[in-house]
Known about the structure:
Elements: H1 10-16, E1 38-40, E2 43-45, H2 50-61, E3 106-108, E4 151-153, E5 159-161, H3 165-185, H4 189-199, E6 225-234, E7 240-248, H5 253-266, H6 286-293, H7 303-313, E8 341-344, E9 347-349, E10 352-354, E11 357-360, E12 366-368, E13 373-381, E14 385-392, E15 397-406, E16 413-414, E17 419-423, E18 433-439, E19 449-450, H8 452-456
Helix pairs in contact: 3-4, 3-5, 4-7, 6-7
Bound molecules: zinc ion.
Amino acid sequence: MKKFSRMASALIFTLQAFLSTPMAVLASDMSSTKEATEQVQKATDTTETTESSTESTEESSTKESIESSSSSSESTTESTSSGTKPSESSTPSDQETPKKEEPKKETEKPAAPKEESTAEQSNQISQEVPTPETIVDQEATIDLSRTVPSSTVTQDGSIHFEKNESVDSFIHKIGESARKIGKEKELYASVMIAQAILESASGQSQLAQEPNYNLFGIKGTHNGKSVSMATQENLGNGTLYATQAGFRVYENYEDCFNDYATLLKEGITGNSNYYAGVWKSNAKTYQEATEYLTGRYATDTQYAQKLNGLIETYDLTDYDKELQGPIISRSGYKIPLQNYTISSVFGNRNGEFHRGLDMAAAQGERIYAVKSGRVIKAEFHTSWGNYVVIQHEDGTTALYAHQQQSIVKVGGTVSQSQIIGYVGSTGNSTGSHLHFELCKDSSLSQGMLVDPQSVLFGD
Ligand SMILES: [Zn+2]
């Protein structure tokens, strides 16, 4: 442990409490990193905030690793961990919401066509757990702000997070992908989402965002794509140096979860069961899975408590279940919400024409596409707020207004019942509700509108 860590303020200790320290994840297809790395032009945003720089210093001091730039995927890795573990504050924290990062500079660097291999482990576990080759770069996100939700640590050691809007919004973006992959691969979606929150600073890291979608800091190439990011490596003696490393680039979050799930299922070279303890077939509860990851995926001794705290605060176990979509009407349309009350009907009201159907529902209630189609609008409008228009195959369109958050993009296709967003009260709206319009074409002109009730609930 370096001297400077002693200078850590209470704030740093608090921040540190949430830092995860992924130890090692090994791709079974490490050899893919041998392939010519496609150079993805990438704007590497290096942002510095007070928090991130102190944080980075603190975190770096808690672990040491030697980077080996061997050309072989069988490269040996050395670990000279100081064996220190993150200290944990036992006092409640009043941390503010994570700050939004402002990109300060942009540099374009080609992807480094070389292999990176680092490994970290704590002395405590070095006897029991083999050191796998690491493709998760924990330094990768250090120079990005790794702000995390505020939390408190109780006497029994469990960690409670304060619900935070930006984290909620991030979960909305990645949750359904995790649900799908979790089901397919028999893994806890709740655990993967909680890990993604920690590893990507709730999606704020540059690596986690479009167009990279790398939530777990996984190195190498994916389908020939990689992005070079500035990162800090540790020489093994505590000396940090700046370098560039290649990280996998994914098509979208689902692609990322799928790749990560593959790692968990296929393990590491020479030990395909390395992560077997997190499989649903072996872990009866998500708590067993998070416990198994501690000391194995991350050196952080508080890793399980952090994941558990996030899973509880954000009800992530909901994503471990299969989604019960809303009912389908006789006309073949899905009802866009599951829990709602009709608060205003289509047509004239108080001398004004109401263009759609208002369905009152709780903030954050899922909005389902009534039919499959293509997204032709997804933007903010002063009266509709966050709204989405989807054109169906028969040419009709549906408009969904006042969303808290929409999670589809113009040009994208959606299937019937797919979640397109969440109920809110944005724009000119009183109270949380979905304003839903149906139009015979894409004009959205008043004369072409139809009464949604007659279609959704009619004979
Ligand atoms: Zn309305």
